[in-house]
Design a protein that fits this description.
3 domains, Rossmann fold, Serine Threonine Protein Phosphatase 5, Tetratricopeptide repeat, 5-stranded parallel β-sheet, globular, DNA Cyclobutane Dipyrimidine Photolyase, subunit A, domain 3, alpha/beta
Length: about 425
């Protein structure tokens, strides 16, 4: 009988641990062909000159793909890297390496699912199947106590039912060995210049250095528990005086670590320290699941429910530019935008504030703000970003009163007391209060 080869198409699942497509392919096939495509679509420049992916996020992605290649090589395998449209590249590779099937993780946002559909069609022309796996959420879709179409739109009800009626599956194993066909041209990792971007300059004011890859993500997870070894963090971060947020989002966004790995690390930590149900991180992870499932349920509606067509006059555009560059005159907003532009990361609190301010006070179309975050955030994740923005704009599907509206009003109260503002607006360090940044 002839050998079976499975092509594993890596996208936002850049890890070897707790990765079902990799393990399943290792079990089912004689040989595995791991592939990553840098799709030019994600490096397009929009009509207004803004890149879809900024340099900081692109660098994080390059580091993550390089780390994945290293980890696969350590298991005896290799990662094929290509620049181009996956709908052209994957069928070519499938033919070249006599592939029998292609595996990938299913996405939810429409740009990502459009790409999958094109790949599926192109593979089907070769009579090859694209097998979809579910692997981006904490709770597996099949384990939810309701079908996707009946998922509660209220986060509170979603949370209550999921926590009561579902369980988080254990992490799955890591293949001991990866056997690839003989690969003649594995392909070089592109440079930022090849992706049309310049090397970013690291800002010395940044407290956390984000380096992409599974190795760094797992290190960050360990450090998080080491730094919080005895204390259960406060549940609500907004306004907290100590910042205990995990800063894991960039690694979660690219799947360098999985939601389940974080969840089970929390459980292990609680057992080791004899503290139970601290709520440590689970609530935040659930928010991530919620937005993802909302995307699955409502799809493109997230982008079309904007009833008030916003003014796009040159004056409005000028206001938007001031917001982007941190020149609104509101110190907390400006400091947050300076930090976002310099580092690609701001806290959830800062995100709520700047988004609320843009939408409610400046009355700029929320989609412009979301697109700007898409470029800048190193943890950009379609459902989390567009879902949170829609929520801030009052267009999400959660029927509760929107708390973000009130938060935006707090900006001026924070102005005079924040060390954060001093750092990012380079004012004299004269204040005591520490805001979670
Ligand atoms: C306007 C706006 C845009 C946002 N865009 C993104 C985005 O593109 N990508 C992204 O990962 N998060 C986004 N968030 C959610 C949240 O701000 C970040 O996940 C969080 O600040 C990341 O820091 P952390 O890893 O320290 O989070 P922690 O507080 O330590 O939380 C742990 C993890 O839970 C998830 N999480 C926490 N809060 C949320 C939330 N409200 N929604 C979804 N997931 C959450 C993240 O994966 C996070 O890493 C956005 C929030 C707002 C208000």
């Amino acid at each position: 009988m002839s050998e079976k080869t499975i092509l594993v198409w890596f996208r936002n699942d850049l890890r070897i641990h707790d990765n079902e497509i990799l393990l399943e392919a290792a079990r089912k096939a004689d040989k595995i062909l791991p592939v990553y495509c840098f799709d030019p679509y994600y490096f397009n420049i929009a009509a207004d000159g803004t890149p879809k992916t900024g340099a900081l996020r692109a660098r994080f992605l390059l580091e993550s793909v390089a780390d994945l290649r290293k980890n696969l090589q350590e298991l005896g395998g290799e990662l094929i890297i290509r620049i181009g449209d996956p709908a052209e590249i994957l069928p070519q590779l499938a033919e070249q390496y006599a592939v029998n099937e292609v595996y990938h993780h299913r996405e939810v946002a429409y740009e990502e699912t459009d790409i999958s559909e094109k790949v599926e069609t192109a593979l089907w022309n070769l009579k090859l199947n694209l097998k979809h796996f579910i692997g981006h959420t904490l709770y597996h879709k099949e384990d939810l106590p309701f079908p996707i179409k009946d998922i509660p739109d209220s986060f509170a009800i979603f949370k209550k039912k999921v926590e009561r009626d579902s369980n988080v599956r254990p992490c799955i194993g890591t293949p001991e060995k990866i056997i690839t066909p003989e690969i003649t041209d594995a392909g070089e990792l592109p440079t930022l210049q090849q992706l049309g971007l310049n090397e970013p300059v690291d800002d010395t004011r940044a407290r956390v250095k984000f380096k992409g890859g599974e190795t760094e993500g797992l290190k960050r997870l360990e450090e998080y528990f080491a730094n919080n070894s005895q204390i259960a963090p406060t549940k609500g971060r907004n306004g907290a005086t100590v910042d205990r947020s995990s800063k894991l989002a960039p690694w979660l966004a690219l799947g360098c670590i999985s939601m389940r790995q974080v969840y089970w690390a929390v459980v292990k930590h609680e057992q080791a320290n004899n503290v139970h149900n601290t709520g440590m991180l689970e609530l935040e992870l659930l928010w991530r699941d919620y937005f993802r499932f909302m995307f699955k349920k409502h799809g493109k509606q997230y982008f079309t429910t904007d009833e008030q067509a916003k003014n796009t006059s040159p004056e409005k555009q000028a206001i938007f530019e001031k917001w982007k560059t941190g020149n609104t005159g509101i110190p907390f907003i400006d400091a947050s935008m300076h930090k976002l532009n310099a580092t690609g990361y701001i806290s959830n609190f800062s995100r709520q504030m700047v988004a609320g301010y843009l939408v409610r006070d400046l009355e700029v179309d929320w989609k412009k703000g979301a697109a700007y975050f898409e470029e800048k955030l190193i943890d950009y994740s379609p459902a989390s970003n567009w879902g949170n923005w829609a929520f801030v704009a009052g267009l999400g599907h959660d029927p509760r009163d929107n708390k973000y509206f009130n938060i935006a009003k707090q900006a001026s109260e924070l102005d005079i007391n924040s060390e954060f503002i001093n750092i990012w607006l380079a004012e004299e360090a004269k204040f005591g209060q520490v805001v979670a940044v």
